[in-house]
Protein: VCBS repeat-containing protein
Amino acid sequence: MRAVGSVVLVFSVAAGANPLPVPRGFESPTPPQPEASTFETDTVFGDCGYYRVDAVREAADPLNRFGALELHYIDDSLSPGVDWHLQDTYEVWVYDPAGNEEPLGYDARFEDVDGDRRPECVVTLRRVETAGNDEVVLEFGLDGFTVVLGLDEDLISLPLELDGDGYTVEALRRRYGWFAPFGEVRLYRSEEEEEGGRVPVDVYPDSEETDFYGGSLDLEDYTGDGRPEAVVYTNMGGNDPLICCGLVVLEPTPGGLTELYYEPMLAPFARDADSDGVTEIFTYTAYTSSFVVGRAYRASFIDRVFVYEGGRYVPGELADYKDFLLSRVTEEERYYAESLLGDYPEAILGEGQSVLAQLAAAGLDAEYALWWEGHREELRGATLSIHDGDWDEVERVFSTPDALRAEWAGMY
Ligand SMILES: [Ca+2]
Ligand SMILES: [Ca+2]
Structure:
């Protein structure tokens, strides 16, 4: 590959010095004389010749912004060193809240952003609505502008090393108001000998059925082998984390991205619960029950654990993580104690149900029986105080720990 020379950015503002057309949005009957800004590079790419990126500023804009970039080039083979040809135009404007076109371009520079050893054109934007700066990254060449990072996009790019080689895990976030999800994760290998400096290795997911709304991308060793996994916490939006929050764990290898865990809901969370260096993943269940009083309760508790075994995450035994689960139950007990202080029967029932359901789901039978003995009078009293039905039924349900468990068994 030909050595790439240094990049020179010429930034000049000279009124009337450039005969560029007035960009869209400024074609008023008496347009002000535009000021021209030229972003120029002397770097030669391929066989094309010199490139020049221009922008036309709107003198009347209080922020001195522009609405489009233009890519020009000199093709020495056609007209050696004489004529600039317009190759492409990239528009950087949006509609403002009043429906007018708002120019966003503020500044530009040339910089090798993606590590391919060619400079990209980085356009700095300035938007009135948010009063913040942002960037758009454009590749440019014989095909004109190619968008690397477009308007309202963020690139999460995390370098890692696999078997001594350099790799990158990337995700492109697209903003929709406050919501900025990404739908795929890409793996690249750095390759000095390759044109472009890196090679696409894999993209996840490779099937349209496995769609997700990525909220974050991190590298963390879950499996305990010293190599990081790509961890994506997902969020499809909404108020209920049990329905909208999920987790994807991918193992980057030289061969590609291997899915170790995928759950788009149930608010999974990862902990090394037994401190053995390997991360476990816990999920919640949620059900609405009528309990014994004809009223609906929503209770959620950890009811499954997934453990890393045989190269992927598989269902494990909750009882193996007894100490961890009891520490979580302690938290529920605190809410239960607070509800007793408030003498609020619905809360007493709801929190007590969560504690017992958690202990039952984890198979912690001794702890369940103990908790039942210590709290059944409060639960029974709370039930009776709001009960409007069959009192004999209440007495039956609260007669033994197993009777209550059997009552709940049909609910989830
Ligand atoms: Ca690992
Ligand atoms: Ca562990």
The first helix runs from residue 241 to 244.
